[in-house]
Design a protein that fits this description.
Aminopeptidase, Elongation Factor Tu (Ef-tu), domain 3, alpha+beta, 356 residues, 9 helices, 2 domains
């Protein structure tokens, strides 16, 4: 990954984007794609679309999409003693929030900590249940409701403070890989398709509010009608000791992008990805998705009377924790794979869709 692309990834990862509060991250994304896009669009809720207009004589439109939002927390209430009571934004995990440093994104960022009673003071005679997020609190270092209300207000989003850390060569850990890697890949796939002088019209899409019910994808699906959606999101790498056997999918970090089969995933697009991966010497992994993918692909494929879609996954360890872990070689391969799909000028995708 060269310096410009790495800087873009780090800019996305360091910009807080809890669901419903994605605007700053979307601005970062739009700034990056502007030089190689022919058109930029946004809507009232912040969904962002970059368009490469293809050749007039090529009737093929493809979309590469990821979601910009991350899970988080929110100020639910402020107690008389100045403590902040919480609610979750998306699938926040109560087992990893306690004892964390956080930022409350008020008019000015406010630092705090999610309190955890010291082990010496806890009653452990009957085991230790983890408090629900609604019963956890943030301490911002004040002693009264009045002092707290001068700094924060109900509805302010909260994120856990983390750093971007390289563990070993291409292994990278940070909060919110889910799914800033998806919008990075959508942008990079567009750039690479443009470099290949793509004759197809290509949309790169950064949706909002996926973590709270695929809302942004539903909005975008009303506005554009490409021939096919290629949706990038993280998927569980189940190659760590703690993963239960029944949850194993044989997906391994560092072994390449994951192409899902079943339900949402149109077989012609699955075949297209496998064929292009073979042509480009890109290793891929397969994953079963018998009922749903749990990604924006589930919303896109039912839009506009039915739109062929496929989910491309990036292996990710420790999803929905502050230490999500990916391999940047896998991420590069996702962008390369989709860029090659978009850069093809033949009509194979259209032919496959017609015959399936």
């Amino acid at each position: 990954m060269d310096t410009e692309q790495r800087d873009f990834l780090e800019a996305l990862l360091t910009t807080p984007t809890p669901s419903g509060f994605e605007r700053a991250g979307q601005g970062t994304w739009l700034d990056y794609v502007e030089p190689f896009a022919d058109e930029l669009r946004t809507d009232a809720y912040g969904n962002a679309v970059a368009v490469h207009h293809g050749s007039d004589d090529v009737d093929l439109e493809l979309a590469f999409a990821g979601h910009a939002d991350e899970i988080g927390l929110m100020v639910r209430n402020i107690t008389e003693d100045g403590f902040i009571q919480l609610t979750g934004v998306g699938g926040a995990d109560k087992t990893v929030t306690r004892g964390q440093q956080v930022t409350v994104h008020a008019d000015e960022p406010i630092s705090g900590v999610i309190g955890q009673t010291a082990i010496h003071l806890r009653d452990r005679t009957n085991g230790e249940d983890v408090d629900d997020i609604a019963n956890q609190h943030v301490d911002i270092g004040v002693d009264s409701k009045e002092d707290a209300e001068e700094l924060v207000e109900i509805g302010d989003p909260i994120t856990i403070d983390t750093s971007i850390t390289t563990l070993s060569e291409t292994r990278l850990t940070a909060r919110g890989m889910d799914n800033r890697i998806g919008v990075w890949a959508a942008a990079e796939a567009l750039r690479r398709a443009v470099e290949r002088d793509a004759d197809a019209t290509i949309y790169a899409i950064a949706t909002v509010q996926e973590e709270v019910g695929l809302k942004g994808a539903q909005m975008v699906g009303f506005d554009i009608a490409p021939d096919a959606y290629f949706v990038v999101d993280v998927t569980h790498a189940t190659d760590t000791p703690a993963v239960p056997g029944e949850a194993s999918t044989a997906v391994t970090i560092g072994d390449g992008p994951v192409v899902a089969r079943g339900s949402t995933n149109h077989p012609a697009l699955v075949e297209r990805l496998r064929s292009v991966a073979d042509d480009e010497s890109i290793d891929i992994q397969l994953q079963a998705a018998g009922s749903r993918t749990g990604t924006d692909a589930d919303a896109f494929y039912t839009s506009n009377g039915g739109a062929p879609a496929v989910n491309v996954g990036l292996p990710n360890r420790y999803m929905h924790t502050p230490v999500e872990l990916i391999d940047t070689d896998d991420l590069e391969d996702v962008a390369a794979l989709l860029g090659a799909v978009g850069g093809e000028t033949d009509t194979l995708v259209t032919d496959l869709l017609t015959n399936n």
